[in-house]
Amino acid sequence: MANKAIIIYGPPGSGKGTQAELLARKYGFFHFDTGRFIENIVHSPEANHDLVLKREKKNFDTGRLCTPAWVLKIVKEEATRLAKSNWSLVFSGSPRTMYEVMGDKKQKGLINHLSRLYGRKNIFILWLKIRESTTMKRNSRRLLCKVCGLPILASAKTKRCAFCGGGMRKRTLDKPAVIKVRLNEYRDRTYPILAYMKKSGYKVQGINGKPPPYKVFEKVQKAVGLE
Fold first, then answer.
1. Whole-angstrom Cα distance, residue 201 to residue 54?
2. Average pLDDT, stretch 109-131?
3. DSSP class of residue 120?
4. 151 - beta bridge partners?
5. Lowest mean pLDDT among 31-35, 51-55, 141-145, 218-222
6. Is there a contact between 32 and 110 (Cβ–Cβ < 8 Å)?
7. What is the enclosing helix (H) or strand (E) of 215?
């Protein structure tokens, strides 16, 4: 089976990361969590001494999207490394801006880059749909494991990670005020990407993100030919 590159879109809290993790665990995909990738970089010790990383840390921690040219560069470099290592990739919510999708005269966009790495027919774009009220409810309650980083479902009542037993932490992104900023960013800068993808001939498959994750995953597997 040819390697694939899957991009999962949706508003904050729609389950993008959860579905990507399920693909990673069941089928061996590499979950390219761009948010976590950037978070690790901007919260690294080096960020205290680098002006660019200081700028991007401020953007990240306030809910704004990081500078697209910077994001595109680091994501393309990492995607190339992973593709050469024979990984199938699943992105959760990236590329996030039209610039990251299309690029410019200086550098080509991520979609073009992925098509070159994997072949156009092996690119799949999914769109998880939920209401904004669901976004607020899920994200304001969301916790991540301090050790392994896995998310805990908003409906779960545990205070320990079921995978490694680690304690929980709350992301800076999941404060109510920041969630509102992220929703605005999604509407203004990410949602238009879906229309562009369709116009460019890529198949964008919509999936209801409200049911429990395992139910959504059934639809995801069918959409990408893995059922």
1. 38
2. 94
3. G
4. 144
5. 141-145
6. no
7. helix 213-223
207, 126 contact by CB (below 8 A): yes
Residue 105, pLDDT score: 87
- Which structure tokens are listed for 61? 């921690």
- Across 4-8, 134-138, 150-154, least confident range: 150-154
Cα–Cα distance between 145 and 143 in angstroms, integer? Answer: 7
226 φ, ψ to 5°? -120, 10
Measured CA to CA, the distance from residue 70 to residue 67 in angstroms comes to 6
Domains, the chain, with CATH or none = 5-131+191-223 (3.40.50.300)
